[in-house]
Each structure stands twice: as structure tokens, then as C-alpha cells.
Amino acid sequence: MTAESQTVKVGIEEILSVSALNHMARQALESRFPLLWVSGEISNLRRPSSGHLYFALKDEDAQVDCVMFRGRAQLLPFRLQDGLRVEARALVTLYEARGGFQLNIESLRHAGIGALFEAFARLRERLEKEGLFAPARRLPLPRFPRRIGIVTSPQAAALRDILAALARRAPQVPLILYPTPVQGEGAAANIAGAIGLAAARAECDVLIVARGGGSIEDLWAFNEEAVARAIDACPIPVIAGIGHETDTTIADLAADCRAATPTAAADLASAGWFEAQDALSRLGVALRTQMKRHLQEHMQRIDLLARRLVHPGERLGRLRAETAHLATRLAAGLRRRLGAASADLQRLDTRLARGRPDVRHARRDLNDLAARLRASLDGSLAQRQSRLSSLAASLEHLSPRAVLGRGYSLVRKADGSIVRDAQQLAVAEAVQLTFGSGAAEAQVTRLNDS
Question: Which pLDDT tens digit goes with each residue over 185-194?
Fold first, then answer.
């Protein structure tokens, strides 16, 4: 049966059941009051096995019961405890079964966070308009810093984390601590002063500004304008490692590089040294591997040469045996070759003897023919010599010189032509006379008709 069905009328008066009244009251409260923020101190906190949280929010004059169901309670970023001042985002309602006025809590935060967030947002917007967070203003981190400065509290766990990370990654790099409180009244001015001191002394190449995790109140010193201005004015590259990965402060935005945690800031500051060390380690492994391979190759070569290397006496003995064996083979081969050649020669001699002609009769015939040829040649030569002598004598009679010897002469003109007729000559023409012995030149003085 619903609450509405439990309403009855008696005469003109309407009578409500308790459940109907509580239901109407709950609806009225929830419609009248939307989600709102309520500030108070936690009291009478209970944690049953269901996972829900039950507690009261109180101030100096009143208190109200609250419930935070398990799904919401599991998302709390901090642990609740009695006496903690919080701000609750809640729905005003009524627990109908008991008729109890209560708040259903959607989320919780530390008291005062709303005002802090507003101050953070205003400062961030103003500094961003000034260009304080512009990427162009950020300094590059040195790859191999010779000294690393640290701005933090000497008692902070963040310092131990940074020291452990740097001892592991770059133990050779000197560290300079600029101690400062990082929480509480005046912390922002002290932090800014430590950063200014590091900048003035200029004895490190990179500066880590660090603090461990905490609430927004704990980290608030790093949201002050003085710290942001000091970071921006610092000529040394600044790495901010403040809080956890989800924490973002004004100092993070003003720094040249933001790290998620203090350990991550140490990793960034030593990245070059660590990478060089890692590269050197890899090169060392590669060098050792290469040297091992070369040694193994040379060892194998030595083993091979050792197997080939024998005692000189043993080697001479083997060579002597091989020489004797080769001499034996050579002698046997020569004997076989000589035997074969001798047999071939004997066969050829036999064949030559069978095919040799009888030249004795042919030699006698040849001698007779030669004698007859010589006799014939002598007779023919004598006849020809006699005839030649006769022809020579006849020719001598016909020779011009013989004619000239008998007193005749030969007349030639100046051009060497023979004069056979007086008509070929002219008076005063020079002529040449050839006699049987000698010659003379003459000139025609007169021509006679024949």
C-alpha cells in the first residue's frame, strides 16, 4: 500500500498516515532544496560493513545527519575522521522509515577549498594574460647539468625521493640544497627567496623546486604569486615537481618544465646523464660481444693452425717418404716408357727392313747415267762454244768500232743525233767527231753538193 492510499477523510478533515506524511515531507524538501554545499565538522563517523558512511555535520549551534553511499564513498580522495572540517555537496532529504531529516552526500572536500580554487583561478588567469606561462618564456633543460640545485625542505620525503633517484641515475653530479619551508605561514616568501638565492649564486645548471603530495591547503604556498614571479625571473631552468600527478599549481605552470612527482623531476634533470649511461652500457655490451666474437674466431684459427703445425723432423720424415715414393713411381714410369719406346723402335725397324728397296743395281745404273750425261754435256758445250766464237768473230766485223778502226769516223750534231746526210748540217754548226780511238769537235765551214 502506498503513502497516498493511506489517506482517509473523516467528515471534512483529511487524516494522513505517518508514511504518507513522511513521503510528502521528503518530496517537499527535495523539490525545495536543490543540490547545495554545506560546511561543517564531521562528528560521530560510522563505517558499517555495507561500505556506506554515516556521520553528522555540525557547527557551534546545530548538527544534521548525513549519509554517503558506498559508490560515492569509494571516490573520496582523502580519509574521513571525526573533527575534520569539510564542505559537502548534498541533497536535502528525509529518511521516510524513521522520519529523520538528513543530507545525502554526493561529494566532499576540505573546508575552504572553494575559496582557494577561486583564488587559484583568478591568479592563473591574470598571470596567463601577462604571458607568464607562455611556452616562449621557457628555458631549455641542459642535457648534461654539472650541478643540480634543489629547493625544498630538508625534512621532506620529496628530498629523499630526489636524492635516491639522482644517486641511481647520475651519482657523479654534485647536488646543492637550498633549504626552505614548503608549508605554513610565510612558506611562499621563503620558497621565492630560496629560488632567488639559487639564481644569484648561479652555481647550478638546473633547479628542482619540489614538494610531496598533500591537500590543496598543504600545497598552497606554490600557488602564491611570489613563487611564480621568482620562477619566471630565475635565469636557471626550473623543473617543478610538486605533489602528485593530479596536482597542478601555479608554480607548475610558471616552471620551464613540469614533472608529475619529485622523483619524476629528478628523472628529467638527469635524463641526459642517464641516457648517456644507458647508451654507454649498451655500447659496452656490444663491445664485449664483439670482442668475444673476435676472440672466439682467433681461438678457432689458432686451433686450426695448431692442427696444421707439426714438428720439423716429422714433417721432413713425411716429405722424405713422399720423395722416395715419388722416385719409385718415377723410375717405374721411366722403365715402362723406355720399354714401350724400345718395342716401338723394334717394330718400326722390322717394318723398315721389310719395305727397304735394293739400291745397289739402281746405284750402278745411276752412275752409268751420270757418266753418259757428263759426256753429252761436255760435247754439247764444246759445240756451242765453237759456234759462239764464230758468231763473235762475225759480229766483230760488223761492229761500228771495227769500222771506225779502219779510218772511218762518226759525226753527231750537238743534240747527239747521227748525221747521215750533209743536208742535215748548216754552215758554222758545231759537230762532234768520233774516231776508232778518241773524239773531236769541229765546225762546218762549207757544205759541198754531192
Answer: 889 999 999 9
